[in-house]
């Protein structure tokens, strides 16, 4: 397991470039530090004096150093982003360090609420993290904001960091919560984005309500405009389509994707741009061979902050239950969600199937399109349910949104 960090203070880049993270993924004027935890640079960073926080009536004995461990997926980070704003507004002078994985660190390249972002690599849930040794005992407060089962091994990080105070949501039959000094009961029946506010209210009673958000630099928007103009876009309505997902059973099949694209461009004078990770280029090979002036192949060409900029420029987002859906909603874009959970199984939705209304696009007009018919859980896992959502089903909702 290796450790890297970047500081979110403006300035000239320090140290060598980080080969594991593409420049386009960060693309921001911040100082980036790469080091081994045994280096003098690391020790100086850890010992750097920080302005003393001034406790307020809301935050008596305010912590001076706060760590947040967030090892889950992109959508979880976006939905929980309000917690970081709540921390910063209540602890204006505290040093806030975020522990994340390589796949989610680009989300935070322009985040104004954190001082340092530590990138953890290696197997999740391992019992020993020697690279974290310099951070042990450095935090007054350590928080794992994840409300669901700790599949990602955040508790092993928390246990080793040994903060004076550590908090997470309690879980039934999850022994990892014993590594925290206190646990918070996770309320049932609320949207996932509301758990961030539950934590903020627990720490700072009377705080305002915080909603999901993403962060980007002006250069991210400029980069998107340049890339889109190169692809022939001239300002017409832009429909973003993201049919991939981290879980295979949530991926909409290629033949469905291409069928929907053809229907949209034949019915509306808009551009359709397919967005997603570079690895999805192998999944949608037909797209690379399809040449149409209003179809844009955006797979692998945008960073996460640039995707957020795309969403601000878009007219509609169409996609599966995945991170890009939540990025779109956080930027005010209406959402047509292609959902893998059959309506016939609505009453059986549980922690094993984190989907449904409580996972829908938050704060924007949205609709979930689901497969019709009777299916088993084995069908869901095999991807049969997501494949059963037809182009016509999705197109009905796209038509309803775009004709307004």
Could you describe the 3D structure shown?
- With 404 residues, the protein is of the alpha/beta class.
- The chain is built from 14 helices and 14 strands.
- The protein has an eight-stranded mixed beta sheet, with helices on one face. The chain has a six-stranded parallel beta sheet with strand order 11-10-9-12-13-14, sandwiched between helices.
- Strand 10, helix 9 and strand 11 form a beta-alpha-beta unit.
- Helix 7 crosses helix 10 and helix 10 crosses helix 11.
- The chain starts with a strand and ends with a helix.
- About 12% of the residues have low confidence.
**Count the strands?**
14
Q: Please outline the major beta sheet.
A: 8 strands, mixed
Strand content: 15-25%
Strand order of the largest sheet: 2-1-5-4-3-6-7-8
Low-confidence stretches: 9-57
Shape: globular
- Distance separating the two termini: 51 Å
Number of helices: 14
Helix proportion range: 25-40%
Reading the helices and strands in chain order gives EHEHEHHEEEHEEHHEHEHEHEHEEHHH
Structural class: alpha/beta
Specify Rg, calculated over alpha carbons: 22 Å
What is the residue-mean pLDDT, rounded to a whole number? Answer: 82
Layout of SSEs?
Blueprint: E1 3-10, H1 23-26, E2 30-33, H2 40-47, E3 65-69, H3 74-79, H4 82-90, E4 95-101, E5 116-120, E6 141-143, H5 154-161, E7 166-169, E8 182-184, H6 194-203, H7 218-230, E9 238-242, H8 254-267, E10 271-276, H9 285-289, E11 295-299, H10 304-313, E12 316-320, H11 323-330, E13 335-338, E14 366-369, H12 377-381, H13 384-387, H14 391-402
Parallel strand pairs: 3-4, 3-6, 4-5, 6-7, 7-8, 9-10, 9-12, 10-11, 12-13, 13-14
Antiparallel strand pairs: 1-2, 1-5
